[in-house]
Every structure is written in structure tokens, then in C-alpha cells.
Give the backbone structure.
Amino acid sequence: MAVSSPEGQGQFPLPKILTYPSSTPPTLITQGAEGRVYKTTHLDPSRPCILKYRPPKPYRHAILDARLTKERITAEAHVLARCAREGVPVPAVYATDPRAGWMMIEYIDGVPVRQAINEFLGKRPETDQEKVAAEETDNVPLIELLRRIGATVGGLHGTGNVHGDLTTSNMMLRPFSTTIAAEGSKARMVEGDVVLIDFGLATQSSSEEDRAVDLYVLERAFASTHPRAEKLFQHVLDAYEKSFKKAGAALAKLEDVRRRGRKKSMLG
Amino acid sequence: MSTGTVGRKSTSRYFPPSFLKYFKRKLKWSLKKEAQSSAVTPPSAPVPPLSTGSSLTKIEVKNKHNNSFTTTTPRTHFDTADSPKMTSSNPSQKKRRIALGCEGSANKLGIGIISHDITTGEATVLSNIRDTFVSPPGTGFLPKDTAAHHRAFFVRVAKTALSTAGIPISEIDCICYTKGPGMGAPLTSVAIGARTLSLLWNKPLVGVNHCVGHIEMGRTITGADNPVVLYVSGGNTQVIAYAEQRYRIFGEALDIAVGNCLDRFARTLEISNDPAPGYNIEQLAKQGGRILLDLPYAVKGMDCSFSGILTRADELALMMKQGKKGPDGEPFTPADLCFSLQETIFAMLVEITERAMAHVGSNQVLIVGGVGCNERLQEMMGAMAAERGGSVYATDERFCIDNGIMIAHAGLLAYETGFETPLEESTCTQRFRTDEVFVKWRD
């Protein structure tokens, strides 16, 4: 994903909704393969929001392109609305226009979980002394965060949806409003509600296989982004197990998925 | 590959009478053509007559190439057999390494000879001979018949490759063959041929991964440095990027390969398999475009699935044969079906490639494999790459479609790093993932 830059904005035409006169100029946050994410406001200049825009793809047949854009925006909004109704922390949907290919959702003020965990873990210990110190670090706040991640993912699966691309980059940490921890303390870095974002690949599914693949993807992503906290991943699964009724079956399936990997063997 | 390529109509283990009649006609035609072509071949390098009595195919010798490319900056230049650069085989003056590659993982039997300049590493194609087993319309190529074809034609193709290259056998450094992936019986037949050459001439063997062969040949021909590779053929659909000595698979088909989907749809419509079913679908699709029929679109992350699309396309073809009308109340034609199928599946391929490019942060894309010849796919990929400020690299049918030269090229690259396959380990396998190969020759 390309990071926003002043050139980045000039490079693409804005979606029509963002060309109307407004007191808050839109800023491009990220640009992926699928679409672009802008930050702007909804109704009121004090209410920040995210605008996800899927631009038309020039290589696709116009009819096919319109169909896919519409289907995908609608599907994403559906999953988000369903999760919000069931109490899973996700951004609220403010407005959609599937034909024009955009969707406005709540702006989550916080940092990605990936960043929070890495800041908590600090720099890679180099000397032996530092390694000992790192092991002695009190991991309790981190473990609590991992348990909240497990519970949130369990909550999502409990609603009959799977995310499709679970990584710690696709989770935001929204700080608790009434924080009592001291400013600058390490525990404060990993405090907050875990909010799932980027439902671009989400689907409605209650199958154990899909849930297990979701967990497997998270496990692999976690191991590659936070190798030093890999041992703690079990806490995510522990919390997941208690979060909804059929979690046990999904975890049993996870064993199978792990054993074969996500990929099939090549059939030639 | 082995699953889908089995013909639906001819499920019999033996040739039906019509099949034999078809091949008798083909043979007559091929002998006539051979007589014409041998008239222009110099008498010093006659094509040896076929020793076995097989009547399974026609000869197609596609080597007289021009140097036009659909791509940018070719790093390689091509010598035809008429102008071999050197004939000396004295090892002390050795300036180049030469490999002979044998390919036969599907219905193409290809033998090619390549030379690498020892100092510059520049690759020169000395010969690239291919012979395709073409099955009648409405049928696929069965492993058994394909293997029989490869066995029958191996000697002839090998001799043509040698005489076209115009080099003495003593100059060849190694014999490369396809270890896999592919259809079992044809792979085994060609491996036997390669082992025979190795023992006969006392040359080391090098087993090559078919997919890596495609990638390396594509990189060399187009000069693409570190592209995201889309490998699309009758048996494989993969999006590949290089990282840390391996070609890593980022996305792939979850069920049948894209080329298999096209081949089988060609069978449903009973389109000719000559020169290739996909080529005939492409030509037919050019007449379509009046409507876009609704087909499933199955992309999941960087993976995709084609079997559902084929089922739906077959259903629509059946409706068409029964004279039913399309969604807009008008009847539709095979051309409309081919057009809709191409638009849908190629959009899926471009989408997964785009996702992989965004993921690894590359803006070059290289298309290899038989389906890569399709100009519509190249055009769509070009539009996507242009939007990302990148470029698309593709090759033409000589290098896209399975050939011996790519096996020779990839094998020689491995051989130069000291890799050899001992005779007792010179097996072949139907399952051989691209990421199993340790790529020692790149950094």
C-alpha cells in the first residue's frame, strides 16, 4: 500500500462526491490495488469520516466493472452493518453509493494494532543484558490486548461473517475514553478497544473451514509481523475459544488447516 | 493438468474408428508437407525418416523466426541454423556452454538447443523445434495417446533440432529435461528420451521445473528484471514474485487452470484444437462483443477459481444449442459466449496480478505460459500496468507455448551453478511446485 503523498493526490481524479465545495479538503490516506481511502468529514465539519472509493478499472468490460463495484461495496456495507448491529466493534456505515463506487464510514481515531504492539515490544534486544531485561518485561498489558483481539475476532465469527484478511494492520486500537494509566507508561500503549477495519474481502459464512482459515491467516501474519510475540499468540486463541459457542469446532479445524497449509499441492 | 485434459467425449481407452480415420488424413497431409519442406532443406542436413510406424500427428517445425517482438528491449538475439557462429569444439577455447532441452509435460513435444556465452552470459537460441499432438474437435488429449506421440516423434524432433542448430554433439554440455509438473505418461516418455541421450553421448542430466523454465525464458527474452510473473497455461495458473532465492507463489487457481477452462469450453463448442483451442476461442471472441453474458466471478484474495465459470458457460452453450434467448431477449452466438468468457476470466487474472503487484510494490509484470499469447489478455494487462505507471512484458507463441528451449535455458542456468541430476535420481513427478526450486543463479 502506497502511503499518501502530495503527488498522490494529484495523480488521480477525485471521486465526484469529493469534488463538491467543502470546508474540509479530503486527504488520501492509502491506495491499495482495490481502491483509495480518503479522510474527509460527514455532514458536519467536526465529524471526521473515511471515504472508501473503488475507481472504475479501465481494463475491465464496463458492464462487468459496474457489476463488481456495486456488488463489493454492497457486500462490505452489509457485513459492517451486521457486525455493528451485533455489537462487534467495527466502523459505522454513514452512507453508500454502490453505483458511484464509494462508501462513507466512521473514522477510527487511534493507531493500528501492529504499530501498538511493535511500540510496546520496543527495539530488538541486542546485548545479553538487554535480552534478559526484555524477558523480564511485564507482558500482562500485551496479553490483555491479545485476549481482546481473540474476543473481537470471536465476536465477528459469532455473527456469521468472516473477515478474509485478518492481520494486525487491519485492526485499530481506539483508546479507552477514561484512561487512568500514567502518560507515557508502556501499558498505555496497548490499551483500548480493538476495532476491525478493511472488510473488503469479508464474506458471510458460518463454516468452520472459513473461520479456521481466518485464524490461520491471522496467526501467520502475526508471526511474520511480531516474531518476538509469537509465543503469546496462544492467548488470542484462548480468548477466541470462550467468545462464542462454536469456537471449539473452528479451533479443531485450525489444526487441519495448519497441517496442510493454506495451499494445495500442485496438481500439475 | 491430468484431471481436466482427459477428453470428455472420447472416454474409451482405445481409439474410436473415427479417430483413426482422422489421423490417417493428418498423416497424409503431413507427409505431403514434409516432402515440400525437405525440398528446401539443404542436402547436408536431411531430416531423418521416422523409424516408428506411428500415424499420430503432423509435423510442425516453427523455427524460421523473424526478430520482431511484442515486447521491449530484447536482450537475446536469435541465430537461425543457417548461420552458426562457431563450430570448434575444443574445450580449451570454450567460449560458450550449450544445453539441449527436452520438454513434454503436456501435448507439445519440444526440443531446443541454447548457448550461453561464458563471459557475458548472453543467451543465443540455436534451435527450437516443437511438435504438437492435436486431438480432433470435441476431444482433449489423453495421457496415453500423448505419450505415444512423444515416444514416436522424439528421435525425429531431436535430430531436426541438432541439424538446425548445426553444432557437433561434442559441444553440448548437458541434457535438460522437464522433471515436472505435468501429465505423468508424457513426462515419463520424454524423460526416457533424455536419459537415453545422456547415456548415448555421455552428458550430465539436469532436471528442470517446467514453471521455472517459463519464467526464466520470459525474463531473458523480454529483459524484464524483477517482474511479478503471471504464469497461465493449460495446467497452471499462478501469480509469482521472486524473493530470497525462490519464486514464491502469491496467488493461484484453487481448482482447474485457466487454460483448462478455455480448452474444455472449446470442446463444448466443438471448436478445432488446431493450432490451439485457446487461439480459436480468441479469434471467435473478436466477432463477439454485442452483449456480455453474466458469468460467475470468483476471486478470493489473490486466488481464483474457474470451475464454476466453466459449468455456467457450458449451461449457456446448451441453452444456445436449444435455441433459447439470452438475457436481453435476443439469441446469442458462440462468439458472444467466447467473448464473455474471455472478458470475465481475464479480468480475474488481471485483478489478482494487480493485487500481487500492490503487495510486493512492483510495477513490472511478465506474462508467460500458453494463455499468455492471448492478445486480449496482454491488452488488459497493459491497461492495468499503465494505470500503475508500469509496463507489461510478454512473448510470442515461440516462447509462450511449451518449448524445449526454455527447459534448456533454465537447466543451463542451474548447471552453471554446479547443479546436476544423477541418472538414478532422474525421475519425473506430476506435482512439483514452483517454490520448491532453490534459485541459486539469482541474487
